Description:
Mean pLDDT of chain B: 95
CATH topology of chain A: Rossmann fold
Number of strands of chain B: 12
Strand order of the largest sheet of chain B: 1-9-8-5-4-2-3
Structural class of chain B: alpha/beta
CATH superfamily of chain A: Bacterial phosphonate metabolism protein PhnH
Low-confidence stretches of chain A: none
Largest sheet of chain B: 7 strands, mixed
Helix content of chain B: 25-40%
Oligomer: heterodimer
Number of strands of chain A: 9
Largest interface: A-B, 38 and 45 residues
Helix content of chain A: 25-40%
Structural class of chain A: alpha/beta
Shape of chain A: globular
Strand content of chain B: 15-25%
Radius of gyration of chain B: 20 Å
Low-confidence stretches of chain B: none
Largest sheet of chain A: 6 strands, mixed
Amino acid sequence: MTADILKGGFANAPVDAAHAFRAAMNVMARPGTIEVLNGAEPPAPVSVAAGTLLLTLCDPDTPLHLAGDYDCEAVRSWISFHIGAPIVAAERAMFALGKWEALAPVTRFAIGTPEYPDRSATLIVEQAELDQDGMSLRGPGIKDCASMSLPEAETFQMNATLFPLGLDFFFTSGEQVSALPRTTKVEVA
Amino acid sequence: MSDYNFAYLDEQTKRMIRRAILKGLAIPGYQVPFASREMPMPYGWGTGGVQVSAATLTPEDTLKVIDQGADDTTNAVSIRKFFEKTAGVATTEETAQASVIQTRHRIPEEDLREDQILVYQVPIPEPLRFLEPSEIETRKMHSLEEYGLMHVKLYEDIAKHGAIATSYAYPVKIEGRYVMDPSPIPKFDNPKMEMAAIQLFGAGREQRIYALPPYCQVVSLDFEDYPFEASKADHACDMCGATNSYLDEVIMDDAGNRMFVCSDTDYCASRRKAGHLGAQAAAASAALKETAA
């Protein structure tokens, strides 16, 4: 164990997690909005926002999948010290973290069951940047229409047709976070 | 305050509740099971709402708690004190000043804003429970979108009473999918549920959390020939004269005298402060002036 993995947790866990959750809840309730999310200092390649999300939402009760180059020794050790989430294959994951290409195909992840649609995975997608240009979004949480940059449209359109089943997504970049629940209708603007 | 973790609950419990809230927002109207904790107040006193509020509050928040619209009733006062003590948050009775509002059985009269959160205390979250006692069955009914029974109930109301007699906890359909219990708010409040604020529902004893994102479609169930009507007492507030607010009927004496007052105490007080007077308040102040003269 190196000293590095002991660092980068919340300085004041109850308060930092409360702030982080409010940002996460706001973006999930209002697709298309971008909020600042910080407090964690995770090892590369995990962004500050993604690390903060993990600290806020994950614990030993939440199996986590690390996709692609996120599945490395530094990240695994940091997660096992600060969070304790078991690292699992995509099929068993409640949360997943990685770049969009590495998370594909997303059909591997749990979409819930008709009686328990909440037993579905939440994917944390790391992006180079987040901005409010790009696809147009409609659905609950959006007054008329919102827009957001997404890695593609087709997967999210397919995901929305599964409703009430489906996956929910957070997008993270640096200290920024946005989200896309399964209810949002995505169209190429 | 240092005797408690921030907002009373431990961090692992808050994470569990927060995950349930996020899934609730992603599946509007669906009841997410959660591992409700014992709180230092009995079930039925808002333990669900308290747990949701505890997982939602930040130290910068200003909390308002209402019970049937009133800020000064036992339930509201004790929950407000609970969070003053365990979270150290500021509290208020003014709707506009609050960032988080925990409510029992009312939605404030004043329109809520995007930066506000409304937390409902819910006794029975399952709208089908009084029609079908089995959780296995009701869960199956939700999954199959089988809500015929609810329409039969409303139809029986019409057959027996000539109108839909359900006046509170009036069932709503969310985004054309889940039938949801709006908690026992009067049906007068149902149309307000399509609002700018996030709405969170917590049922402690029944261990369910559900949620509505802002601007979510909320339709009160009805029939073409018996459309939904957001009814209230056909009267103006005797204190502030408001004609558009939900009223409580208060019996004044044994002679059958009564008065109608806004159930939303903050709304009523701010209207009176602005100079609006209802019939009985005007009469009382005239009588006072006479005595003084």
